[in-house]
DNA sequence: CAATATTACATAGCAAGCTATGTATTGGAG
DNA sequence: CTCCAATACATAGCTTGCTATGTAATATTG
């Protein structure tokens, strides 16, 4: 088949991702949350005191990317980093009270963005889209540059 | 409904986008094409000699982002920029022979990445996913920060 | 137990996205 | 024709992604 931008999964996924990112950023920046901090906060709200390594595994980003993001989050008063007693290499990341207080506002923002993106979708369609995306993730992660 | 990373469209779309971008980059970088140059090239292969403004409209990125990308592409010998005769403000972007020669290789790379991502999908599922993504794009673009 | 390897994180440097703003050319109003 | 607005692009500065490499602490091995 001939290649075309309109039928390219990668092109369109990239397009959607940028649109959703812009939208989310517009909602959370006024609350004092940078776009890159958001995924890290989601996991820390689930389980506070994670190490950098644990966060890297959960987020699927590279370690230096997270280190820089955590530095900005510390600067912005969202987290503190403290050396682990017992293992001096480990930095445990802890949410500040300010960050803990932002949880509901942030959830609402994310749910609003998703709801807008999925307006007109019934529950079955929404589930279907998420299921298809999960399959794509497994395919790409499963072969990790050996394809 | 309670918010969760696993059921968040934005989170998962962002994840897929990064995975696909990494994969494509690994394939095209050795050919001398940077990741950011790829979408611009796709449109220039369709129609050479576009202006920056026309490319910005087609790509859905901001003008300064494209200006920087074109500067890198010029540095890398993929395009030349020439002032339009008749309107001294306009820069027409033209592909170099080198860039024209890369077309098939680039198409193949993109199709490979998409095929890997969609492995195990039949044609109907593939069409369905693309259709759902198109609906998401329309929803998000259609309300453009008025939601 | 000293030397080495491994681990966890930090730093440097680049790409590519963004907003805000500057500059040069063109077009239009008086 | 002159002045001002609009247009097309460039520049500056930030964020967030990446790879490659450095550093300090811990674990392992001969």
Automatic annotation (TrEMBL), chains A, B:
Residues 6-138 form the HTH marR-type domain. SUPFAM superfamilies: Winged helix' DNA-binding domain (SSF46785). It comes from the Bacteria. GO terms for molecular function: DNA binding; DNA-binding transcription factor activity. Gene3D superfamilies: Winged helix-like DNA-binding domain superfamily/Winged helix DNA-binding domain. Keywords: DNA-binding, Transcription, Transcription regulation. Pfam families: MarR_2 (PF12802). PANTHER family: TRANSCRIPTIONAL REGULATOR, MARR (PTHR42756), TRANSCRIPTIONAL REPRESSOR OF EMRAB OPERON (PTHR42756:SF1). This is DNA-binding transcriptional regulator, MarR family.
């Amino acid at each position: 088949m001939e290649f075309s931008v309109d039928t390219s999964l990668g092109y369109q996924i990239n397009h959607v991702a940028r649109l959703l990112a812009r939208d989310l950023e517009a909602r959370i920046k006024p609350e004092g949350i940078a776009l890159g901090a958001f995924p890290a906060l989601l996991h820390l709200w689930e389980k506070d005191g994670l190490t950098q390594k644990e966060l890297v595994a959960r987020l699927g980003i590279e370690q230096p990317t997270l280190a820089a993001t955590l530095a900005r989050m510390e600067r912005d008063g969202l987290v503190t980093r403290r050396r682990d007693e017992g293992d001096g290499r480990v930095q445990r990341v802890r949410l500040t009270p300010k960050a803990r207080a932002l949880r509901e506002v942030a959830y609402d923002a994310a749910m609003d963005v998703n709801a807008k993106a999925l307006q007109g979708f019934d529950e079955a369609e929404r589930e279907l889209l998420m299921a298809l995306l999960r399959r794509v993730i497994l395919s790409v992660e499963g072969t990790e540059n050996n394809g």
